[in-house]
Structures are given as C-alpha cells and as structure tokens.
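INFO batch 0412 | record 1 of 1 | parsing
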Amino acid sequence: MADNIAQLRNALATISGSTFGPDYLPTDDMLPRLKQAGYAYAEATREVNERLFKCEQLLGVGQRSEAIRQAVIDPDLLKRFAELDIPVRAAWTEFAGRNGLPAPAALNRTAATTLNQAFAAEERVKDNLQQFRTLSLSRAPLPQRLTVLRLLVQTEPANVAWIDDLNRFEVARFDEIRSMAARVRQNDDLALATELAKEVQAPAWVTKPPLDLIDVVLRAHQDVLRRDLQRGLRVLEGRMTDAVRGWDDVPGDDEEADNARAAFLADAKAVRKDVRNVMDQFELADADPLLDPFRDVFQWIKTQEDDEAHGRKFQKAVRALFQAIRDNHDWWYVAQCYRQVCAFNRPIPQEALDAYNTAKRKRGIFKQAIIIGAVALAIVAVAVVFIVRKP
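INFO prediction complete | emitting tokens
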C-alpha cells in the first residue's frame, strides 16, 4: 500500500511538473517516466471512479451511512479525488492521447459532489442518528424511537429512507396502541388512557392512524375517565353528606347554633365549588347522570343562599328604619320604612319595635298637644269676639 501511494505521488509529481503545451516535446529519457506516470494516474482514476460509482449506488437506495463508511476506507475517497484533480489534468489528457500514452478517464465529479453533500447531511443528523441507533440497539419503546425518527425526517424531508422507516415504525406502533387500549380498560389506567388519546390525535403522524383505532382509544379513555370521575365524585358526595348532616344536627336557635350551621353550609358550598370545577375540567353537562347525587343538595344550598340574601335585605331595611328614627324624618317616611320591614314577614328585632313604638308614641303626644293647643286658641278667639261685640 505504501509503495502504491509513493508510486502515485511520484506519478502526480512527474505529470504536474510539465506544462504539456502544443509545442512540448519530452526528451528520450523523460518519455518512459511519463509513460509510467500515465499508467499509475489512469489506474488511480479508474479506482476512484469505481468507488464513487458504488457510493452513488448506495446513496440512490438510501444507504447513506454505508456509502460514507465505504468512502472513508483508506485511502479516503474524496481526498484521493482531490489529489487526482490536478491543474494540468486536461492538458495531460490531451498530450497523452496525442502521443500514445495512457490517458485517464474523466473523474466522476457529479458522484463526488453527491457524496460530499451526503457527508454534510450526515453531519447535520449525526447526533439524532447516533441516538436512534442507540435506542434501536437497546430495543427502546417505539414512542422513543419514533420521536427521534421524526426529528430525522424533519431535518431531511427528502430522505426516502427515513420516511420509509417512519412509516414502518408508525404502523407497528398502531398495533401496540390497539392492544394497550384493551389493557387500559381492564386496569382502569387513566394516565395511560390519557397518554394514548393524546398520541392518536397528535399531528406528528406521517401515516395517519386508522379511524377505528382512534375510536377505540377515545372510547377507552372516556370509559376510564368516567369511572375515575365516579370515584372522585363519590368522595365529594361523602363530604357533601357530612356537611348537610352536620347542619341538620345542630341544636338550638341561638347565635352559637347559627354560627355552627353557617360553618357547615360553608363546607357544602366548598364541595359544590369542587364539583363545578370537575364539571368545567371534564366538560360535564348539567344533565350528566354523574351529577344526580348532588342535585337535591345543590337546590338546598341555593335555598339557603336565597334565605341569606333575603336576610341581608331585611337587615338593611331594619337599619334604614333606625336611621329614619334617629334622623327625625317626617313621620310618613318613618312609617314607610316600617312597612318595608314588615313586608319581609320576618320577626322584627325587639329593639327596632321599641324604637318605632317610642317614636310613634312621641308623635301621638305631639299630635295631641297640637290639637289641644288648637282648641285652646279657638276658645280664646271666640272669647275675644264675644268681648268685642258686647255693648
């Protein structure tokens, strides 16, 4: 091998050292050397073209990595190509043909350019390609290998080999998903069911999942999801039952009892909020049968809330009555405030009744005084008239 390399380099040096113009005439001792160099140069060119042809064939069937492996076998193919592509090549070829010396074939520049582009493409995908090979050797799960394959296709969309591999792996994954969907139902595995549902609906597929497969996966996910929801709603139902039962069991009607009932009602409202969050998260309709255990309690909570709102309005009316009395408003306005309080059909606080009755009594005394004063004035007026008319 070393002798061949040395022989080729000597041949290239011999050929490159001459100009081979139209008037060039080699000396008698130079002619044998040129002939020997011509044989070596022509043979090296033939070998390079043969290797380029093999690499070009491999690239044509998508075996880029093998083509590159063949190209880097010593001597490196593209380096040897560059060595043979000497500046005087055209002149030497013409001279050799004119003087009966061995002329080299034309270098396959197209194949060399294609091979050089293959090296550049291989460099771009080197990391992903290494990762894919590692995953394949370790028999990694198909989803992992599909992820890397899709990156390779994204990097080289025109590489038919990657697309063929991706199609093949995706079809194999469809079979896996179908069997996994059956196990999902058996094991109530919500996490896996959700993962499969997302996977079959993802836009990354080159080969679209069969419609029946999508239907199987989504139905399995829906079934497992509803069973999981049922379990979660049962927990909320238990909390709701405890809150309502606690509210019912509070004895008495004093302030302490009212506070205890308010606490249990707050617990029930918290459960209702959690249920509504579940409805929003999983897009449950109000009429969904899963919500049947909560309907009566929700109505009870609404009744309590309506009663609370009614009570707040009542208290506001009572405060307005107190304010009217304190501000010494006209009696018609005080009476109107009192009628508004009575319209709520709730027991009026004793303090409010006392204030109203006191104001009413004061108004009665004041009214009586006015009447008495008016009568007295009338009597005086009559007396004055009588005295004036007396002869």
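INFO post-check: The mean pLDDT is 85.
INFO record closed
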